[in-house]
């Protein structure tokens, strides 16, 4: 590949809304056969909204919302922001939190009024009524988190996130280029399958409930199977996987950590541009050969 032709490809990339770390990046896109897509913020908008509140007998909806809102107020996760904003709208001022801790891939914990409160996925077993509400929401693609006090479940909150309008078309375009799309997420299996179905990813190619530190292992495993892997992500928890993939693509709307770990940045956060990037590099390299 001559440097001049690669520079031309780089310039064309900028016009398409693709920032390329260096011209040599285009070379590695050529052999890519698998595209791993993060769910939240990549396939979906990541702008979540609080939907339903389910509480156990004896617990008040307002109290459960205040506890959850207070903890989530201190976290930057899209789920957290939805809950903090929703709780504030519905209940007003939120109580103070002590000993706050963010537990990646699980949720948040801290003390409110002297009790330990958790929000997220910490409990293995739930009372029947909450378990049913949670499964029903997840089957429809909503994310459900459990609010517990001193280890006792008080309620379930559901948040929903819209699938980007361009995601289904992007998946079609990636397939047309001969690539296999894989969905990777820390979210629940049922939620992930509902999103995969909506955008056209095979159910066998959905990897759900993957902890942030394990996302990189999914990429390594695919590579050890002989695949050449592109990864598209937006979050801090995607950074290691983006850096390990043969080609890392960050959403320009995502976190700095994701952008810094990537070879390419899709400026507008439109997944269709991932297909443009691969098409562009193939064309650039074909011109050179
Ligand atoms: P993704 O891979 O889709 O970006 P994460 O790895 O960030 O998702 O989170 C995985 C799961 O952990 C979420 O679906 C949720 O159940 C739980 N979780 C993470 N952060 C929080 C939080 N701040 N509050 C409640 N639950 C959380
Ligand atoms: Mg994400």
TrEMBL record:
Q: Which domain of life is it from?
A: Bacteria
Location comes to:
Cell membrane
> Into which family does the record put it?
Belongs to the cation transport ATPase (P-type) (TC 3.A.3) family. Type IB subfamily.
Protein's recorded name: Cation-transporting P-type ATPase B
């Amino acid at each position: 590949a001559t440097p001049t032709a690669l520079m031309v490809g780089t310039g064309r990339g900028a016009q398409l809304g693709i920032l390329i770390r260096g011209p040599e990046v285009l070379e590695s896109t050529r052999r890519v056969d698998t595209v791993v897509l993060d769910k939240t913020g990549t396939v979906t908008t990541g702008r979540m909204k609080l939907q339903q509140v389910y509480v156990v007998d004896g617990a008040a909806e307002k109290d459960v919302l205040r506890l959850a809102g207070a903890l989530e107020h201190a976290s930057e996760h899209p789920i957290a922001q939805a809950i903090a904003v929703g709780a504030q709208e519905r209940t007003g001022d939120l109580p103070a939190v002590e000993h706050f801790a963010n537990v990646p891939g699980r949720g948040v914990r801290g003390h409110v009024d002297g009790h330990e409160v958790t929000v997220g996925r910490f409990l293995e077993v739930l009372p029947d009524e909450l378990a049913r509400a949670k499964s029903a929401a997840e089957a429809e693609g909503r994310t459900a988190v459990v609010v517990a006090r001193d280890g006792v479940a008080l309620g379930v909150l559901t948040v929903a996130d819209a699938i980007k309008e361009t995601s289904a078309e992007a998946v079609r375009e990636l397939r047309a280029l001969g690539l296999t799309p894989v969905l990777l997420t820390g979210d629940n299996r049922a939620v992930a399958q509902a999103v995969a179905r909506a955008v056209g990813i095979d159910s066998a190619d959905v990897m759900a409930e993957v902890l942030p530190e394990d996302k990189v292992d999914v990429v390594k495993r695919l590579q050890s199977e002989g695949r050449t892997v592109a990864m598209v992500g937006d979050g801090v928890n995607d950074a290691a996987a983006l850096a390990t993939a043969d080609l890392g693509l960050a959403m320009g709307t995502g976190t700095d950590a994701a952008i810094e770990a990537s070879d390419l940045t899709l400026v507008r956060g439109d997944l269709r541009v991932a297909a443009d990037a691969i098409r562009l590099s193939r064309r650039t390299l074909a011109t050179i050969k």
